[in-house]
Design brief:
This protein has 34 helices and 25 strands. The chain is an alpha+beta fold and 941 residues long. The chain has five domains: 389 residues, no CATH class; 100 residues, Immunoglobulin-like (Sandwich); 41 residues; 104 residues; 125 residues, Jelly Rolls. The protein starts with a helix and ends with a strand.
Length: 941
Amino acid sequence: MSLNTLRTFALRRPWAVILAAVLVTYWPLSSFGWTLTYGDTLDCWLPWRFFIATCLQDGHFPLWNPLQQMGYPIYADLQGPAWYVEAIALGGTVGQSILVLQGLFLAYLVIGGLGMRRLVQEVHGREGAALVIGVAYALGGFFTGHTMHFYSVISAAWLPWLIEAQLRLMRAPHWRPALSAAVFQYFLLSGGNHTFNILVAYLLAAFFATHAVVLWRSGARATFRQLVAWEGVYVLMAVLMACGTLYAAWEVAPYLSRAEGLDYADAAIRPFTWRACLSYLFPFAVGVNAEALGTDPTMANGYLGMLIGLFALLAFFRKITVTEKVLLVFGSICLLASFGGALPMHKFLWSVLPGFDLFRFPSYFQWGVQLAVLVLAGGTLAHWSSIRQSHGLPLKFLLVGFVGLIGALLMWAWLRVEGDPIQADLCEKLKALSTAQRLLLNGAVPMFVLLAALALALRRRLGLAALGVLVVMEMAWSTGLAVWNTSVANVSPFAVKARVDAQPEGPILPRMEPLGRSKDDGSAMQYLWRNTQVYKGQPTRAGFNSFQLKHVLALDAGPDTLALLDRKPLIFLENDGIDDRVALRAFEHDRFVVQVRNRAADELVVQQAWYPGWEIRVDGKEALVIRTHMAAFGCSLPAGDHLVEILFRKPIVPWLLGLSMVTLFAVLVVLAVTGRRARARFLGVLLLGGFTAFALLGHRPRSERIDDGLRDLAGTTGAPRVVSTDRPALEHELMPDVSAVLRCQGAPEVAHVLSALERIEGPHAELIEAGLDLPLETVYLLNDQGWHVTARDRYAGVILWKLTRQSLGSEGHQVFRDDLGGGRALCDPGDPYTAAFRMRVGDLDYAEGELLAVDLRYRARPGARGMVVLERKRDGRTTSYEALPFIAATAADSVWTPVLLCRSREELRDPDEELGVYVWNDAADTVWVKDLRVRMMKCDD
């Protein structure tokens, strides 16, 4: 294939070039060998999107999240993003998992690159130069540094599209760019970070002012009036598309302290720092030491390519357009503001300009720096043929200067390199490198690229195609290293997905236990530490989110109230007499039903944050909602038996959602059928519309599906049945003839299922999942205990397992067995541990199976806390530690109870790690254990 053919292909299919550059540079993520970085990615964006998907698949729009922060209106949290068409379309169809989020991140890099290409082409008119800059933007340090800030990634992806559409509109006022700009503004308002909406508003105002002045002075007043009119259309259509987002933001503002503005100390946290300036040349070399950087590592990447920086400097040797001058001023202000309190600019903007006191992280201003530099560099590339002829000497001097600077830094690093890299896997080894080692590794390819550019310049052969190849080489190498700083976590995404998939499908009825017991931790989910109740399904006051209602935050100042609420369940009676009862009968995300028996008049308290929209109906009649306990709400109840329904309703939301979606898709259809490649674009809009319509209209509430399934099963006959459910009234309402009804939630409670099956006579039995998914371990433990699963049939929202007694089934690949002397007693502090079984992870390669299974038998005193410990080490360093509780809630000390615990093999990724397995009792009461066994099991065993 000739060079001209490649060039033609690149210009005709720019998306393929940018996609290839992204996939290669971000290969740890595109190969799905590693997951997106820890931090907000797994703490915030994954659980919030997961919750939105759960709501949509439960047949309703996400209004209220009862599972974190004592409940909050998730439709009003603009970080959600509940109103964003992408989140809706995917959430209600394929769902929102770490794999989807990872794919979306890569897709947004490509979208951002294509948008920057269009922007540069609009400003400078050259396809080749625009493509180079588009690749540079996609591989730039903003995306790499802010990987964990997913809504900022979305903003950075769509901002160039908005600016390009606005510049087209100002150049030639017309309905088409006005509608295009409105669509991108909707994307930014509903899915992006409000920080960038504020920044781009000032930038667009500056562009509008300059164009208006030019038009007015040139006498083109009719064109000016047209521009004003079409800008009005842009504003109107953007408001209609984003009406839900704007309404929610307006409604919630009085209840958010952040809406009143941030103190400067809060607004100035996490700036770009002087040490972070090293990232302009070597983004990998800045490292991950927050103390040394003086800021969070995510805020310390301003990389945009050495050659791109050189092209931007060369812009001062040519005539700069008005658009470039505006961007130059904007970028200069952003550069000064990005250093936060270290320079006066940030505080000046915070104190003078409206909106600048509403966001944190001055490092975000680096996006404006990159925008200005890239457009200036694009102008240089667009005029490259004339520049290298007329300004060849400055070009060579700049290249020599860069080579000298990089050479000096590499020499400094060479003289300070000490020791060898640690013995660890690739991710840990790269993270542990010293600054000198990082400089040498990062600087090798850029040094070669600069020398190659200098050699070609001296021979007068440094053309645009060669420059494009050199830019991609340099940036792919530097960014490809920098992803290990802030974009990648050292865990398989399939391992993270397995932890989420192991949780029951929601919504489930939570246990009515003290709310203080419900905490966010990694005890069950390992890699997911915050907002974990979104997956587990138990309401909590815990939650990691900058969106906090004022009155919930006020609870921190009332320790007595907090202590009282901690002792109470989700819904309780204020006086709570001995004979009083509160039983949860239904639990949906925005609707709870309780059966209440109170001997005297009392107040029913709901431990959810009060917010406009809550209604309470007592025995079908609406009751007055009372605010109580600072943040909660409730109602008065007369003595007697009552059925109480608690609902969160927003009647205006469906109308706003309908208006938003109808306007959006009407505009998209008009833009698709009137533009180039109309058929392909129309089919794309049709596909997105189909996904969105199915997400919003194609699901029924899970509770209805469960009821339908149980009705279908009630009309069938078969073997004796055991029902596992979170809905305790079901056996009385729909299935009166079952052998046992129990709640099996978590691997230790599979013992309850076995106990119920043991009481069944005959060779056959049926096990029913009704509202609460049985744990993964169930099928393996049944197999171990002589029950073979012959079929699993789905009846609407219910699953029927058909079981047959058999001789003991396949044991999988046994790795280790210890009968522990027929019964080993563990009691703390005297003798809390068994001896550890240890082996090298790589030695498991011969063992077939996708699951690591640990099983044992135990007897336990009531206060015992037995745990199976899975520990991994490398060179004396503990790389992973997990203690898995194995004692069921009603376990007895007179019966040997079996338990089996599973973990995905994906978690055993480093063959040089040492895996340790042992049993630990973290309490004073005794637990006896025996028959400890470690196996590798196949998923179809």
